Amino acid sequence: MAQADRRPRAKARQGLDLGLFHHLSGASGSSYSTRRLIAQETDKVLSNKDKELANRAKVMTDAFYAQNLLREAFPESRYGSVKGAIFAAYRFVRPKVSKELTPRRIRSIREGTARRIDAEEMEALKAAIIEEAHREQQELRARLAALDKKVAAFSESVAGRSVAGAGE
């Protein structure tokens, strides 16, 4: 008999809480406000889970590592577009792996949707990083040589003006 007395009170209390919510929010008994209340409660739960996930130790998967290698070795700024970078990576990696490789496979690695990364693919991407570093080093040396020539030419013109001005 005690249980029978408790059940109606619990139902009445739940109804009262929703009624109080409707009254306070100014809602006119629509299901929208009920959904909003449920959504707010869900958001609270999700935010707690997000905090727990943020505090966990981060693990770098092979797919994520390969994605970073690919983007670093074949930057879209060098090749003009993502498509150009993907095809340059395809042309570089294809001869270095024994299995058949497609541009779609390179794209999935670049987008981070590849489920696995073969060891040959990872080694080819590491070789691409080294080659990109050599290429960038050569470009920087050429740029420094050009800047040295400009500075030398500017220094000569300034020195020539000061000598010519002193002789007058």
Describe this structure in words.
The chain is mainly alpha-helical and 168 residues long. The chain has a domain at 62-137. 80% of the residues lie in helices and 0% in strands. It is built from seven helices and no strands. Helix 3 (62-73) runs parallel beside helix 7 and helix 5 packs across helix 6 (103-111). Residues 11-18 and 20-24 have low confidence and may be disordered.
Distance between the termini: 121 Å
H/E element string? HHHHHHH
Number of helices: 7
**Global Rg:** 33 Å
Query: What is the global morphology?
Result: elongated
Largest sheet: none
Overall structural class, as computed from helix and strand content, comes to mainly alpha
- The tally of beta strands, per DSSP, is 0
Mean pLDDT across every amino acid position: 78
Low-confidence segments, given as residue ranges, are 11-18, 20-24
Oligomer designation: single chain
Percent in helix: over 70%
Strand content: under 5%
Q: Could you provide a short overview of the structure?
A:
The chain is mainly α and 168 residues long. It is built from 7 helices and no strands.
Task: List key phrases describing it.
7 helices; 168 residues; mainly alpha; 0% strand
Show the helix and strand layout:
Layout: H1 2-25, H2 31-55, H3 62-73, H4 76-79, H5 82-93, H6 103-111, H7 119-167
Helix pairs in contact: 3-7, 5-6
